[in-house]
From TrEMBL:
The lineage of its organism: Bacteria, Pseudomonadati, Pseudomonadota, Alphaproteobacteria, Rhodobacterales. InterPro entries: Dimeric_a/b-barrel. This is Cyclase. It comes from Ruegeria marisrubri.
């Protein structure tokens, strides 16, 4: 069974962030991360939430901790990031 990652962050501009997020899909795919869902909080318009499936937990952790991703977050106006790893029981 796949491990899942729940990612949440405040973004400066949701639409600008979503554009960068979509452009970064090949980078996530190369890290073995599959996009499942993306949500916008209806009560906080500039809060983004995404759910991913990952096959290799160590590879996913390395991706989420990478400097390259940090630069993309900066480009997308991302702040207050929370990443939660979820494993099936």
């Amino acid at each position: 069974m796949a491990t899942h990652v729940l990612w949440q962050a405040d973004v400066a501009d949701f639409d600008a962030w979503l554009k960068v997020f979509r452009e970064d899909k090949p980078m996530r795919k190369a890290a073995g991360i599959v996009d499942l869902h993306v949500w916008r909080d209806p009560d906080q318009a500039d809060h983004a939430v995404a759910l991913f499936a990952v096959a290799d937990l160590d590879k996913a952790r390395a991706f989420f901790d990478s400097e390259e991703l940090a630069m993309h977050h900066e480009r997308g106006g991302v702040a207050h990031i929370q990443v939660k790893l979820l494993t099936p029981v």
